[in-house]
Amino acid sequence: MSSYVTVAKKSDIREGRGKAFTVKGKRIAVFNVDGENFYALDNTCAHALGPLGRGRVKSGLVICPVHGYAYDIKTGECQTDARLRVTSYAVAVEGDEVKVNC
User: Which domain holds residue 58?
Assistant: First the structure.
């Protein structure tokens, strides 16, 4: 059954960046768009297994630091190759806590 798990404080993830966490055995990257809006995707790029949590957030996309593949930060759809996608997860912010549903 899915449930929300606290992964970080808002201040733990810099604006425009992501950070990877292990949640219920899954590597999940949580991204801070603007200090208030957070999104979560699988941490592993579907192209060459790069760490998406180390990518930069730009214009609603996270850019993989390995080969520059771009993923929609809300849906996980790859904008570089339409055949690729990563799983997206619901995020809730309660006070200063960032929680991921998985």
Answer: 4-101
